[in-house]
Each structure stands twice: as structure tokens, then as C-alpha cells.
Fold this protein.
Amino acid sequence: MKILITGINGFVGTNFTNSWCKNHTLFGLDIKQPEKEGVERTFGWDELGKVPPVDAIVHLAGKAHDTKNESEAQVYFDVNTGLTQKIFDYFLQSDARTFIFFSSVKAAADSVPGEVLTEDVVPAPVGPYGESKIRAEEYIIRAWNHDSRAGTKNIYILRPCMIHGPGNKGNLNLLYNVVRKGIPWPLGAYENRRSFCSIGNISYVVEQLIVKEDIESGIYHVGDDEPLSTNELIKLISESVGKKAHIWKFPKGMMSAAASVGGSLHLPLNKERLRKLTENYVVSNEKIKRALGIEKMPLSAQEGMRKTLDSF
């Protein structure tokens, strides 16, 4: 298969390249165009007309979630919505058969309503990251419903959980460094569970969507089979760095009071941060597994996480 990957030089694009280059012909679309092993050529966004015919387009390029809230809101819409509109319009005019857009579970919900997040949820994103992603989804769906060209193609909107793997950057790295330095985790009383997405699992899912070509178009959540609690994650990190896990189980009431004081004094721990650190965010991957005809993902949550941590 000939595949065009936007954002090919990023974390996910690099891992996809490493996984697919032996079996597929890969082209890239990115801001920078360095030579990349396994990639025929990477084009700039102003060179779309020079891209040779491909079978599938995987749209990864986007503005990542800024947990520090330092980015201007419009930047998210310019990149996450604007670039998606541009590449999807190109796809509709091209001979490519399959389009895969990487949205996010944050486009569906900032916090999970109920116990498990499914594709049936009415989207309620909070903040410019999730809002810009849902705008992009809406643009694709409008064309999907009203453009005759879309009916002859395969269109997939994927909402992955937090993707991790070699080259990962973000909150997982921050937690890794906390544990590596031997700093105790004070929120052990909370058994919150979160869904993650191993790069190995999502690489498998996307490749199957491309090569099978008979899977129903639609919106799919993608994640590992089992959620992990923060305490389990800390234990896995401790194993990886060869240190004893330091998990302190202070009473929840004490931590809540500390967060209230922290908010008043503008300290790192406040009520909002405590909620984010201790809430459940479990996502169902049953729909995508049914579509692919599999009972479980190639990697278990723990296997995938160990691979990521060992790469650190």
C-alpha cells in the first residue's frame, strides 16, 4: 500500500514509520522535510499538488493538548481544524481510498459521564484542544453526508486515549521522573483508573483499517483492553527503574483540604488539579475490536506500558 502520513516527523508518525516501512510505501507531509529512513519523501503543506497518488491518508498533524494552558486558543483551531479541512478536501479530490483522522477522546468528553466512555456519548469537549478536534470531526461528517465522492471511500475518525511509546513526551514522562527520583506519591488512597493506548496497539489498528478496506466507516475509540490505576502505573515505573514504589495513602479528606488551601495560596496542588489526578477516565474499545473481528488487542495494557517505560 502507498500511504501518506501527515505529521510524519512527530512521535506517532515516527513510530508508524518504523512499524510500516517494510510492508508499505510511505510518504510524509510535515512542516519540516528532513530525509527519514523508510520514507520515500516528505512534502511541505504547500506541496500537496506534488504528492504522488496514494491508497490511504493518515492525518496525524495537529496541535497537541497543552496541559499548561500557555497556547492561544486560535492556534488549536488554525491547526487542528484548519489543516484537517485542507487535507480532507484534498482526499476527496484524490484517488485515495481511505482517510484516517486522529481526533481524541477529549473531543468527546473532558470527564467521563458514567463509568465508561463509548462512541454513543454526545460530545461535550472542554477547552480549545477538544473543541478544535470536534470541529474537525464535524467538518468531515458534513462532507461524509453530503458529498457524493465520500460515499465511495472509507473514512475513519479515531479517538485514541493517551498514546504512549518510544519517544513519548508529556505527563507520563513527568510521572516517570517523579518515581525515578524517589519522590513519594501522596495520592495512593485514590484507586482511579484510566485508559491508555499503546503505540503498538494503535499502529496495528490503523494498519488493519488500511489493508482490509472493508471495515465500516465511522467513529471509533481506541485504547488498550485494560485501564490502569495510577498506583499500578507507579509500580510499573518502579519496576522499570529498579526502585521500590513509594505510595503514601493520606486520607482523602486531608488531601481535599490541602488542595483547598493550595488553591488559595496558588500552590501546585489545587482542587482542579486534584480532580484531574484522581478521576476515572475509562474508555471502551469494544466497537473497534468488533469492526476488526478480534477479541483483544495485540498488547495488554501492562505489556505496552512496560515497552514504553523500558524505552525511557
